[in-house]
Amino acid sequence: MAHILVADDDAHIREIVSFALERAGHRVREARDGREALAAFEQEAPDLVVLDIVMPEEDGLDVCRRIREHSAVPILFLSSRDDELDRVLGLELGGDDYVTKPFSPRELVARVKAMLRRATVTTAPRAPSDLLRHGALTLDLERYRCTWSELDVVLSATEFMLLRALLTTPQRVFSRSDLVERAYGHGHHITERTIDSHIRRIRKKFAAVGADPVETVYGIGYRIREHH
């Protein structure tokens, strides 16, 4: 059972989402707008957040930006518009997935389950020696920690899984479809543009510590940059 925060200004949508998630065994806290969502997040530290993009008192993108200042909790966006720009913007701010309204409650529950599973995989107890290293870059799979020359780089669950995939085989060039499967699982309808958004976020976070460990192989995909 996970504790999930559902933020949407539409009471009917909140009811549908909450009912579906509670039926799947989760505990749900509802918020009617962005301000309520941030207050509830601070009070209860949920395991996952479902955010509507268009809300009063701070919209979903603002809420996501604020949460990402200090937390890597999985975030699922709800969008009332089938707008690629909104999707990419949300993911660049740190969202992990999205569902477009109208949506199937069953699909939403499946997306939530997959996101929680990814987060659990990255935080599952492992042998203390289970570290991935490449030059100054280290992923600690036991503690879900990423460092560059001992400086912490805070990644979301999806970003961690992407970097883990790249680091597992440093010499390999991964196509975007390869990375979708590694980070999201088989059969997930994530666009290549979404992967590009996540990679940009990873690079931005590493730039803050003076690094750029991911190399673009134009026309193919990405790989870990060779260290010197």
Beginning-to-end CA distance, first to last residue: 45 Å
Segments where pLDDT lies below 50 for 5+ residues?
123-128
Gross morphology is globular
CATH level 3 topology of the largest domain: Rossmann fold
Per CATH, the superfamily of the largest domain is: Response regulator
Q: What is the level 1 CATH name of the largest domain?
A: Alpha Beta
| Tally of individual domains | 2
Report the strand count.
12
What's the SSE pattern? EHEHEHEHEHEEEEHEHHEE
The radius of gyration over CA amounts to 17 Å
Beta fraction: 15-25%
Query: What's the number of helices?
Result: 8
Give the overall average pLDDT: 84
Characterise the protein shown here:
With about 230 residues, the chain is an alpha/beta fold. It has two domains: about 120 residues, 3-Layer(aba) Sandwich (Rossmann fold); about 90 residues, Orthogonal Bundle (Arc Repressor Mutant, subunit A). The longest helix is centred in the middle third of the chain and has 19 residues. The termini are far apart. About 5% of the residues have low confidence.
